[in-house]
């Protein structure tokens, strides 16, 4: 009888008979079982949740402002894209700069001793104080303290030192101006529109489907994805109460109505092109005071259904649930089929 030689290579048994060939037999050892996933519990809670959806938006800058000149000949204009701040010249007429002061009220009269008190005087005084001129009272009265503060400012700005601010010597705008265009050229008369611009505050404009509008509220947090893939947190600053109707579609369809929504960005300054397209994750639906469980508690079941495992002491029970809104930001899902206060099984972090 032939001699039998046995060898094992990587789980395969090889038998060799002395007088003949090789025979192969697989080792039928069962594969090692996967270790169980460690679990914990989380409560079933009642909460307000919101489902979010991505919509298109456009980067722009808040506000729209026009600067009108008060006469003379334009001798200098700022570069398009420049940002003009308080005390800096918006333009130059007859060789003298016309500075920007902050305030919501446009200048409509000259400032001088003996003038009627008013909010415009207070606005001028606040700017002088902000520029470092002390010793004046911000009180709507153009008194001697204001007169002497104006003289010091005029001296430092290279303007005629008169103690009087003639109409057109300063321009009031609510905030810094980002210059976006010129309405006149150097050498033209400075008696009309000189330039225009926006604020320096970047915003995202969204033309929202009216169906989504009732769920979007001022102050809602959003996530904006920039063209380079970077993201910024933002919040809804304004939701228009008036729909806008765009022209008909290219395929000849009816005009489409949208709700203008303005989003203010947070974080570091945005360095991207004006009018660049962005993606905005915004609230699409909202439910208040509903039963919720962590999304991670859901177990997929046949037929697209879900279940959760409730835990009471050592007792674990799989319970079918119906789902509605998924709030991925909060990590919660609205369900029916379990009661508030119950504990459900979730993967342990």
UniProtKB/TrEMBL annotation:
The lineage of its organism: Bacteria, Bacillati, Actinomycetota, Actinomycetes, Streptosporangiales. Pfam families: PG_binding_1. This is Peptidoglycan binding-like domain-containing protein. It comes from Sphaerisporangium album. Gene3D superfamilies: 2.40.420.20, PGBD-like superfamily/PGBD (1.10.101.10). Residues 118-165 form the Peptidoglycan binding-like domain.
